[in-house]
Each structure stands twice: as C-alpha cells, then as structure tokens.
Amino acid sequence: MTDRPTPATLAALTGRHLDLVRAPFTLPSSRLIVFREGDGVRVHTSEYERRLAECRVLDSLTVRDASSRPIAITAVLPDRVVFGDGAATLVFAGPAALSLGASAPGFSAQWTTPDGETRTAPLAPAVRFDVAEDRSVRAEASLTHEADAGAARALWREWFAACPVVRDDLQEMTAFCWWVLGANIVSLPRLRAQLGDVRAVVPSKIGYVGLWQWDAYFIATGLRHGAPDLAREQLDLAFGFPSPNGQLPDVVHEEGVLATSDDLPQADRDRLRRAGSQIADPHAPVPLTKPPLAAWALRKVLEALPRTPDNHAWARRHLETIRGSQDWWFACSDLDGDGMPEYGHPYSSGLDDSPIFDGPLPTTAPDLGAYLVLQDLELARFAEEYGDADPDMHRERAQRTLAKLLELWVPTPPPDATGASPGASGRVGPASAGVFRARAAGEPVASDAIVGLMPLLTGSLPSDITEALVAALDDPARYGTPWGLPTVAAGDPDFSPERMWRGPVWVNTNLLVAEGLEASGRPDLARELAERTVALVIHGGGPHEYFNPLTGEKAETATTAFGWSAALFVDLAVRLSA
User: Fold this and answer.
1) What is the 3-state secondary structure of 372-399?
2) Do the domain assignments include residue 1?
3) 3-state secondary structure of 144
C-alpha cells in the first residue's frame, strides 16, 4: 500500500466508473437519481417498490449552445456532471434539487417533463430544479450554483475521507464500492418517531429502496471499516421492529415493515404466481424474515467499535432482540416439529429463486441449519462476555441443531452405467463426493445448490464431510467454475448461468463459504476464494448484484451498484490488505 490517497484522488478514481448507466448520479440521503439520456440526462426519484418508469421527474435535460445544439457530457465525478469539458456542470443543490450552471454566457438549459412539455431557459448563470414529493418540478434562475457545487463537493470529500486504504490493486474498486455505499444512503423520515433520525443504506436506489434484514447485515459488515456509526444505524433499523413473538421483519421501509405475506406488494405476488409458486396465495399469512445472521453481524460491527459503555449498552440491548429472534425460529418455524426449523416461504431464505423451493413447502435447508448453529455459538460467546444469559443453553441447542443438520448429508451415491450419480429423487445429476440436500415437505430435493456448502460455517463437521465439500469447490461439474462459486452446481440440470440464484455467482455466498472454510481449518482456501471474489468484481466492472460464473460479467438481469456486493468487496479488500 502507498500513502493514503486524498479524498479528491478517490473521487477521481470513482469517476472512472460513473457512466450514468450502471452507476447513476446521486447524493447521499437524496431520493433523486440521474441517468444518461442522449447528450443529456434524465431524472427520476427513488421510491420503495416503484419502477423507474413510475418515478419520472424529467425525461430529458440538456445543455444547449448559442445555436441551440446540444453539448455532450464529457465527465462524471461524484459531485458533478460535466458538459463540454467544463462549459456547464450539473450539481446537487441539497437532497431535493439540482442546479445546472454554465461557465460563460450563451448557453441554455432545455428540459422535457413527463407530460411532454419542453421548456428552455438561459443559463445566466444557472437554473435550479426543485423537486417536490409528488415529483413535480419548479425551475427558476439561481445565483447559488457555485455554492451548491462546493457543498456537494465537500459532502463527498468528507465521505471519501473515511474510505479504507487497501492494497494498491484493490484501491480503485474499493473507492467505487465506498461511493456505492454513500450513494445508496436514504433517509427514512417517517420512522423518526420510533428510531430517531436514522439513515438506511439500501441495496440500490434502483428498485430496492428499503432496508432488507439480510442486506443490512452484509452492508454493515463493509461500513464498519470507515463508517462504524452508520453500520450501527443499519442494525438499529434491522432490529428495531421485532414482533411480539420475536420474529424480525424481512424489510423495514418508509411506509412500515414487511413481516408477513399479507405485506407483500402486488408485484411480488404476481411474480410468485408467474413462477408457479405454491405460496403465491396462501390461505393464512406466512411470516417473512431473513436467515439468522444477526449475531454474526453484531459481532462484526462490534469489532470496529471502541469498547465504551455506550457501545456495550447498545450491544446488550440488541442481544435481547437477537435471542428473541433465535428462539422464534425454533418455536414458530419448526413447522414439522422435528427440532429443525424450516423456511416457510422462499423469501425468508434470501435465495428466493433457488431450485430448492421448486417443490412443496416448508423447506428444510442446510444453510438455515448452519446459520442457526453459528448464531447459537455466537450467542454463547456473548453470554460469556456479558454475563446476561446462559451460554450452555445456546451451546446445547447448537449441538442438537448440528445433529439434525448432519441428517441432511447424503454420501456418494453409486454411479450408474454412464458414471453419473442419480439424484435423491432419481434424477441423474453430476457425480459428487456427497452433498447436503434440502428437503421439500420432508422429501429430498435433487438440486445441488450452494446452500449445501454453508454447513462449513459451523466449523464442526466430521473431517470426511469437510473434505468432500472442499473437493466440490474444485470439481468443474459442481462449484469449480472459472469465476467463483455458482449458486447451483454447474453440472446440475437446474443450473443456469444467468438466472437469479440458479447459477450466477453472488459476493455474499462466496464470502460466507470463505468464512466457512476459515472456520473449518482451511484458511488457505478461504483466502484463495476471497482473492477470486475481489478479482471477479474488478473483472465484471463493479459490485453488481450477481455475475455469470462462466464469463465473470454482470448477469443480464442483475442490478448494478448493489449495496451488499459493494460492502463485502470493501470488507474483503480490507482483510486481504492486512
């Protein structure tokens, strides 16, 4: 590593990735997002469960010269969009306004509103566009363009001043990922009464404007390296709305929470129905949550916080909530009463489209068992540190859960005449050295999915099972694809390199498997997987939602500038640079 880069240097490195297509122009805490449109831009708001097409502010905004010809965009930096090599700049004027100003007379702004009206005004020296909550725009001449530009520049430089310093080969992408985290900050004023003035770092301002529980854990893990207070706020939101029985909601958003199937937006119900999901129209509300990694996330954030009485009290307060959530899984989500909780809805897994949910519900999944073991072991450690609970209770439950988890292990099946091994349902699949198989309503699921690697996180598997899972990582018919771990084994009939959770590589699953390798005594392989993961993000051009495992490029339908991919890149880069 060289000397610490200046905030201006980091902003310039980030600018190489701000194309206004994959990465929009925005401001921390703003709901405005700006994309390229021809020689100019278009402006949208960012709203929960609303498509960009529903959130139009300006369909076009261009700079015109004295002959009314459009001036092209020549550069984009975090704090400004530059037209004509500096002839004009577009900047934020606070979170709800934009300012377009020219450096010399003779230029004008031309914009078109969603109702088709086109207007023109001289940039003498600037036009300010104030956007109301109903997306209406008031445009008027402004004399504060330079001051607005300075304020936006100062805000971003303050953000980049906290960017972690990492290895030289990782610094540029770390700067961009740090920008993604700042760009994805939104305020949730309607929740002030319950939690105060907290900020959510959302998965994306493009379509994911809320705080999903699982995303919050991963995003906090990256934020802790430069913005630990903001990392704390993500957990405050995730833990702030438990139900009376302890369940944590799937999503916290500006209009409330999403905690049962009754809370699902209509678009989600329609999507489930199109996929033929048996849970699209349940007879009774189904709880919606996310996998139990709460204690894991709390531990990560605490590692970055000073040991102060305030942080100690903060952790103790959240531990009570986490214990309630862990108890909920066993009391309310052990749907067949066998001692091993199940997923009652695909959304509660975080892996919505995984083929393990193609069969009937509930689904007994090896990843859920692994997370529950990990969480009880973390809660036992916390109980020993804080003396506020019985650690033995957590360890004993972890051991019982581990025993149930091992019942999902299927050793190597005998090969057929072709050398392939039949799946648990008789379907022919790739030969393997054993697999953890999910169960759909008690029946084995044939799909060889990445959930079967998560038991490594327990650090307590029999050595022969650990070695079998390690062997699967290099097997080209299973997880040995060129660009990381596919979410379904490459030789499985359900494998698709482009379809969400059915083959693409996700940064979070790579990270969890790497941590599982570390816990299982294979730090060499853990570091190798971490290096491959950061190389994937750099090769793919940014922290996308998911990647094609064969090409390493962004999968066609993946969201760009994705929060947890950015956060976990930062986390991995810091760890690899230590």
Assistant:
1) HHHHHHHHHHHHHHHCCCCHHHHHHHHH
2) no
3) coil
Task: Write the CA distances from 370 to 195, 245, 257, 363, 417, integer angstroms.
Answer: 32, 22, 27, 14, 35
Residue with tokens 């390229």: 36
Binned at pLDDT 50, 70 and 90, residue 29 comes out as: very high
| Structural domains in the chain (count) | 2
Domain with residue 279: its CATH number is 1.50.10.10
Q: CB of 355 within 8 A of CB of 363?
A: no
Which one-letter DSSP state was computed for residue 286?
-
Q: What are phi and psi of 92, to 5 degrees?
A: -85, 140
- Asked whether residue 429 carries a pLDDT value surpassing 70, the answer given is no
Q: What are phi and psi of 43, to 5 degrees?
A: -125, 135
pLDDT band at 1 (very low <50, low <70, confident <90, very high): low
Give the C-alpha separation, 117 to 110, whole Å: 11
What's the mean pLDDT in 263-273? 83
**443 and 543 belong to one structural domain:** yes
* Torsion from C-alpha of 243, 512, 16, 187, nearest 10 degrees: 10
CA distance 234 to 454: 24
Average pLDDT, integer, range 535-540 = 98
What torsion do the CA atoms of 324, 325, 328, 334 make, to the nearest 10 degrees? -150
Q: Which of 278, 38, 398, 54 is nearest to 46 (CA)?
A: 54
N-term to C-term CA, the chain: 10
User: Rounded to an integer, what distance in angstroms lies between the CA atom of residue 292 and that of residue 213?
Assistant: 9
Secondary structure element (H or E) that encloses residue 405, with its range: helix 391-406
For residues 221 and 128, membership in a common domain is answered with no
* Mean of the per-residue pLDDT values of the chain: 93
Cβ-contact 535, 507 below 8 angstroms: no
The tokens describing 85, both together, are 């090599």
Inside any domain, residue 215: yes
Q: Which among 178, 172, 79, 225 is positioned nearest to 563, based on CA atoms? A: 178
Identify the residue whose tokens are 């695909």: 346
Q: What angle do CA 553, 74, 570 make, to 5 degrees?
A: 40
* pLDDT at position 502: 97
Residue 2 domain-assigned (yes or no): no
pLDDT band for position 279 (cuts 50, 70, 90): confident
Tokens representing 473 are 């990582």
User: In angstroms, rounded to a whole number, what is the distance separating the alpha carbons of residues 55 and 62?
Assistant: 19
pLDDT band at 255 (very low <50, low <70, confident <90, very high): confident
| Cα–Cα distance, 289 to 345 (Å, whole number) | 9
pLDDT of residue 432: 52
Residues 25 and 125 in one domain: yes
Q: What is the pLDDT of residue 426?
A: 39
- Any domain includes 385: yes
| Tokens found for residue 191 | 């929740």
Same-domain pairing of 329 and 384 = yes
Query: Domain of 356?
Result: 162-577
Name which residue leads in pLDDT, 388 or 80: 80
